[in-house]
Amino acid sequence: MEDLQSALKDRNMTVSTIADKGRCLLATRDFYPGEVIISQEPYVCVPNKSSVETRCDGCFATSNLKKCSGCQVVWYCGSKCQKSDWKLHRLECEVLSKLDKDKRKSVTPSIRLMVKLYLRRKLQSEKIIPSTAIDNYNLVGALVAHMSDINEEQLVLYAQMANLVKIILQWPEIDIKEIAENFSKFACNAHTICDSELRPLGTGLYPVISIINHSCLPNSVLVFEGKSAIVRAVQHIPKGSEVLISYIETAGSTMTRQKALKDQYLFTCTCPRCVKLGQYDDVQESAILEGYRCKNEKCCGFLLRKTDGKGFQCQECGLVRDMEEIKKIATEVKALSEDKASKFCSTGNCQEALTIYKMIEKLQTELCHPFSISLMQTREKLLKLLMELEHWREALAYCKLTLPVYQRVYPAVHPLLGLQYYTCGKLEWYLGDTQSAVKSLTKAVDVLRITHGTNTAFMKDLLMKLEEARAEASYQQSSKDE
Ligand SMILES: [Zn+2]
Ligand SMILES: [Zn+2]
Ligand SMILES: [Zn+2]
Ligand SMILES: [Zn+2]
User: Fold this and answer.
1) Centre of ligand 4 from the C-alpha of residue 407, in Å
2) So where are the chain's domains?
3) Coiled coil where (predicted)?
């Protein structure tokens, strides 16, 4: 712990404790938007795995993969990634190779993450892999596990998984209870590693980053460059204040956010947004984000449930929507999304999925407030499907429909808002509307240079696209002038 404090001191940080919240990370100098507060390599990490997708264990790439001939479980894109991973994988490969075929199939990413955790601890204790102040097992030991808050069912699952880890490792002295507790630590502390466009690639444990607490109105953002976790300030963080990131999707009513935090992270948020729960403007906000639209199509009022329970009344014009009618549409939406949409999406049938999502969108437009999150999410799915199908013009139309909702639900500097401007700009440019593309790409750069920095391949590509679009726009302008 002292080592950690002195390592953090050099980075202008300190670990402290707050009542009810436990450990927290404080800034010991002012930080400004776009500045890197802290970065960390994972203690251990694993790529995602699904029936349709395999990734390199070293860099998470999906192409040119070869299976490790030893264990037949792990994949690499080439000898560079295989070599860099070898000290740890040599041990993992050995234990995985001893498993029979059926057992090997049950080695999920979470199981592998745990096996790697123990192997890395062993290698560090034997000094085969060096330890540092921010890279050692004691930091994992210090993470919260919330064991007393976990339900029986979850405990049984963790015990089963722990048992499998014990079978794989074959270490007689290993403690099943400790492994189960570590699974619980993973659940509340591990991070989903994403690419620059926030698509999930894998899972990693970053024990120092895990000290950073949550806020639904955070002053910092966590992004990944390859496997490195980078925390950047998105607001001015005055000396002495706590560094805060968001653990969840912050677009949602206070009730929805609180439920997500309780379910996965087992705590009740008391951030400035959450303390407003139940106050009039909070009730209004949830009625807009998750409630119904007014019967009068031209009215943008929000609806609240009538005291007699028979319907929802518009707070702007007083019109009442009948409970039965609302229930009917909601049931239709639910049936479509659960049965059909997910089926077509999982089989990769874009055209069919498009048809279903358009039906859902039509119903939701009738049902939900124009700023509804679920309507925005449906349109987001339609946008992705249309891009997949290369229907660019329609994709752009949907992208533009989602933007006002993004602007409403996210702060001005938020990676998802920046990325949405980026998509918009790319589509506009592709469709020949260079002037608009320059505007959208500029907005994207304004946000993403703060959240993502300017050094990654992704950002360099975006900055170059903006330069090219600008050059083309001014060329078009000058040829018009002549
Ligand atoms: Zn690789
Ligand atoms: Zn292997
Ligand atoms: Zn909150
Ligand atoms: Zn109304």
Assistant:
1) 23
2) 1-41+206-266, 42-193, 278-402, 410-482
3) none
